[in-house]
Amino acid sequence: MRLGLTLPWRGEPEAARLAEAAGLFGVLVEPDRPGTEMLAAGQVAAATRAVRIVVRVALGSEHPVTLAEELAVLDNLSGGRVVVLASTADLDLEAAAEDLQLLRDALGARPLRHRGRRWTVPAGIDGHVAPASVAVTPEPAQIDVPVWLHGGRAHELAALAGLPAMVELPERASAAARVQPAMASLRGELDADRSVLIAWARAGATHLLLRAEPSLIGEIARFLAPEVAMPGFPRVVSESPLPLPWPSAT
């Protein structure tokens, strides 16, 4: 199981740098208000080099093609590190499915046409000569941008689309899932936090995003990551004092 960090509001770049230095797989950008997620994610992309940037976006909040364009720019800025966490928000299943399909088609870097209940692409506005199809520019850096689902309709939509859905409780996990993201909160109590991570690992979660204070990143890397990344890791090794620095030649 790979561990990531949910970034704090207004402290995203520095916390992301710490998470990357600690070897965490990714960071989750959750905006403090709608419409700021791309700005915060861009700051994280500029501050890091390798960590995955999971961006929570709400389906239905804007046109899926516009959202795809913003994500494609972010994917290029980050060098192909974007993971989309698409929330179903308040949409019904049919509306969420249409928004998701159009978003994925637009991220596919191919010309597209769409006519559905909610959206028509190209729009075909009266008095405007529309092209036969449209394409997102620039194309995403990744050939296939990963999409995870979240929200009240996530599991229903995941079954239709064949995508991973975010799991909130270990008992809802399935050990057979190839990619199974989850979220958990840490309290800063080592034994209790170990129990939480071990329960998720045993349930079959593959990626666990942790809600934790950035001050706990060192603890996560040293005491918690070995428990789930290397089963059987001798705890005495992680709990022993760090070695003294090697004497310098000067």
Query: Would you tell me the overall average pLDDT?
Result: 90
Instruction: Note the main sheet.
Output: 7 strands, parallel
Count of domain modules: 1
Radius of gyration: 20 Å
What is the name of the CATH topology? TIM Barrel
The helicity comes to 25-40%
CATH superfamily assignment? Answer: Luciferase-like domain
Distance between the termini: 43 Å
* CATH architecture assignment name: Alpha-Beta Barrel
Shape: globular
Hey, roughly how much beta strand do the residues contain?
15-25%
- Note the total helix count: 8
Taken in chain order, the helices and strands follow as EHEHEHEHEEEHEHEHH
Question: In which order are the strands of the major sheet placed?
Answer: 7-4-3-2-1-9-8
Unreliably modeled segments: none
Helix/strand structural class: alpha/beta
- Beta-strand segment tally: 9
Which CATH class applies here? Alpha Beta
What does it look like?
This protein is of the alpha/beta class and 250 residues long. The chain has one domain (2-239): TIM Barrel, CATH 3.20.20. The protein is built from eight helices and nine strands. The protein has helices spanning 12-21, 37-47, 64-77, 93-106, 154-161, 190-203, 217-229, 235-239, and strands at 2-6, 26-29, 52-58, 82-87, 114-115, 120-121, 147-150, 181-185, 207-211. A seven-stranded parallel beta sheet has the order 7-4-3-2-1-9-8. Strands 5-6 form a two-stranded antiparallel sheet. The chain is globular and about 75 Å long. It starts with a strand and ends in an 11-residue tail after the last helix. The model has no long low-confidence stretch (mean pLDDT 90).
